[in-house]
From TrEMBL:
NCBIfam families: PRK07811.1 (NF005871). The modification N6-(pyridoxal phosphate)lysine is found at K199. The lineage of its organism: Bacteria, Bacillati, Actinomycetota, Actinomycetes, Micromonosporales. This is Cystathionine gamma-synthase. CDD domains: CGS_like (cd00614). It is an enzyme of class 2 (transferase). The keyword Cell membrane does not apply. GO terms for molecular function: cystathionine gamma-lyase activity; cystathionine gamma-synthase activity; pyridoxal phosphate binding. It comes from Allocatelliglobosispora scoriae.
Length: 379
């Protein structure tokens, strides 16, 4: 029997506990597991870095939701990324990265991986030929974010999968902004899906985590080896919180999208706003590709005000939108990428405009969010 997304989100990897009947998977808050004899761990569990039942439930659920055969979860999105890079790349290898991406992802390539001999080229992901031109014989991965953080650019996953295949490289898609409810990169030809589960997957701004999902069994076993060998795992309680959040992903995403569509429309009509970046808008350059590969357009909106001081003032003026980094929680957040989440890309090819404001639109009453933005833009 095949199940729908909402059913999988609630049940995949989560049978009632065999011993007690507990409907919700217990938090196996243990570092180690008793063994019946030397070399005979019960159900294969021996030590929680290698495997833990609560983490297994989350990993299975995420794999099911992304249509993958194996999910692996980590202490943070960046820990997942680091494990992937060090599993796939060796000194002398090359990676194509986005010219617009989360600042911490850029920093990981530019300040960490590069020191270990992994070079990179930043390319405009919405331009398939520019990505192809950035590939070298040493390219091992083409790294994609779509929608991008913070400019909401859209990359054609299926087209880039073709470029990666021709190059003999892996196509990696950071699916954090869309979540598996809105977009499923593996079905479009990607080899690896990356998540900061801190965001929509967890959904409640109460836990930091990351994930990788793959279909290829050889890559899955190499990543599983590195997950244990490098040890950047998430703890049982963090896995449990993330799993609890995941159950409501579908209904949360629908409301995030409803609210974001209304706010994008409001911003488009606002005289002080010079540009609205939201892939759901028909004049967004990636709109057609987004329609093809996304169910809806998500809860992230960026907009420009033509002036850095004005952008900072709006961020400081909101009352319901909380001024904070991160995204994807049920509460609305506002931030200034240039001085907050993307300060680490200043002076690089990924530098973001100073007049940019980023919204993570939550699931509060839409009229209240509109009223708050209205007063902040007036102030
Ligand atoms: O914060 P962490 O869980 O390590 O995830 C890193 C990460 C990876 N990919 C994307 C697309 C992200 O947005 C992030 C984290 N982003 C923020 C904290 C932010 O406010 O943009």
């Amino acid at each position: 029997m095949t199940f729908g997304f909402e059913t999988l989100a609630i049940h995949a990897g989560q049978e009632p506990d065999e011993r007690t009947g507990a409907v919700i998977p217990p938090i196996f808050q243990t570092s180690t597991f008793a063994q019946d004899a030397v070399g005979s761990p019960r159900l294969g569990y021996e030590y929680s870095r290698s495997a833990n039942p609560t983490r297994d439930s989350l990993q299975e659920c995420l794999a099911a939701l992304e249509g993958g055969s194996r999910g692996l979860t980590f202490a943070s999105g960046l820990a997942a990324e680091d494990t992937l890079i060090r599993t796939v790349c060796r000194p002398g290898d090359h990676v194509v990265i986005p010219d617009d991406a989360y600042g911490g992802t850029y920093r990981l390539f530019a300040k960490v991986a590069q020191v270990w001999g992994v070079s990179w080229t930043a390319a405009k992901l919405s331009d398939v030929e520019a990505v192809r031109a950035a590939v070298t014989p040493e390219t091992k991965m083409i790294w994609v974010e779509t929608p991008t953080n913070p400019l909401l650019g859209i990359a054609d996953i299926a087209a880039l999968a073709g470029v990666a295949r021709d190059a003999g490289a892996l196509l990696v898609v950071d699916n954090t902004f869309a979540s598996p409810y809105l977009q499923q990169p593996l079905a479009l030809g990607a080899d690896v899906v990356v998540h900061s589960t801190t965001k929509y997957v967890g959904g409640h701004s109460d836990v930091v985590g990351g994930a990788l999902v793959v279909n290829d069994s050889d890559l899955a076993s190499r990543l599983t080896f590195h997950q244990n060998a490098m040890g950047a795992i998430n703890g049982p309680f963090d896995a449990w919180l993330t799993l609890r959040g995941l159950k409501t992903l579908a209904v949360r995403m629908e409301r995030h999208c409803d609210n974001a569509e209304r706010i994008a429309e409001f911003l488009v009509g606002h005289p002080k706003v010079t540009q609205v970046l939201y892939p759901g808008l028909p004049n967004h350059p990636g709109h057609e590709v987004a329609v093809k590969q996304m169910r809806r357009f998500g809860g992230m909106i960026s907009f420009r005000l033509g002036d850095t001081d004005r952008a900072i003032a709006v961020c400081n003026n909101t009352k319901l939108f909380t001024l904070a980094e991160s995204l994807g929680g049920i509460e609305s957040l506002i931030e200034h990428p240039g001085q907050m989440t993307h300060a680490s890309v200043a002076g690089s090819a990924l530098e973001v405009p100073g007049d940019l404001v980023r919204l993570s639109v939550g699931i509060e009453t839409a009229d209240d969010l509109l009223a708050d933005l209205d007063q902040a833009l007036r102030g």
